[in-house]
Write a structure and sequence with these properties.
The protein is an alpha+beta fold. It has two domains: 127 residues, Zn peptidases (Aminopeptidase, 3-Layer(aba) Sandwich), CATH 3.40.630.10; 64 residues. A five-stranded mixed sheet has the order 1-2-6-3-7. The two termini are 43 Å apart.
């Protein structure tokens, strides 16, 4: 007998979890979870060839849309793999399989997985093994990463001498920010100049980071006393 359930779980209003479950022949065994997230980062529509939220498909089968790589492509692979098994007559496995679509991943999952793991519905999944978010690939190989890689969100505060924008003031926050950015970019250059053939391979083996934002603490035409720099570091443990 074959069954397939689709359920909707709410940890935070407006941010649902969508879970597709294929019960196993031995449902008491720890389950397999195939994870994806539904949210995407913001976009600037004027910089896109097609509407980023239209899911436009061209004559070659390429789909254009925000989140196509991060990470709808991975979730689509899960669905396609199961669809092919269904077509071949394989419609049940030893273990229960859950395909989970979660919200809020791009901004830290505070209202997403962080809350869901504390709910009884998460414990009911009886999780034994989970494939989390990976990297999209243009080839036919699906890559599985087995090491731990944790993101660190770091905020640097550069403080310096304030004053009017027409004055040449020493020891400003801006000067310190430049020194910080040069240092951070040099670290990235070291990562990417170690013989790796791609950024992806470098990130797989080392720590690397990206500047994700700069904030300042004063109006225009002034040397501000404080500048904030936001840095995301992928740390390979």
């Amino acid at each position: 007998m074959f069954l397939l359930f689709i359920t909707r779980k709410i940890a935070v209003p407006g941010k649902p979890f969508i879970i597709m479950t294929i019960p196993g022949s031995q449902p008491k065994l720890p389950s397999i979870v195939l994870y994806s997230h539904t949210d995407v980062v913001p976009t600037f529509k004027d910089n896109w060839k097609y509407d980023p939220y239209s899911g436009y498909k061209d004559e070659h089968g390429n789909i254009y849309g925000r989140g196509a790589q991060d990470m709808k492509s991975v979730g689509s692979q899960y669905f396609e793999a199961i669809r092919r098994h269904f077509k071949r007559g394989k419609r049940q496995w030893l273990r229960t399989i859950h395909i989970v679509w979660a919200p809020d991943e791009e901004i830290g999952a505070i209202d997403g997985m962080a809350k869901f793991v504390k709910m009884p519905e998460f414990r009911e999944l009886n999780l034994g093994f989970m494939l989390d978010e990976g990297l999209a690939t243009e080839g036919s190989t699906y890559k599985v990463y087995y090491a731990e890689r944790n993101p660190w969100w770091i905020e640097f505060t550069c403080e310096g001498s304030p004053g009017h924008g027409s004055k040449f003031i020493e020891n400003t926050a801006g000067e310190k920010l430049v020194e910080l950015l040069v240092l951070l970019f040099c670290c990235d250059c070291i990562v990417c100049s170690t013989g790796e053939d791609s950024w992806e391979n470098a990130v797989e083996k080392k720590s690397a980071g990206n500047r994700t934002g700069i904030g300042e603490g004063a109006e225009k035409n002034r040397h501000c006393a404080r500048i904030l720099n936001y840095h995301r570091v992928w740390n390979r443990l």
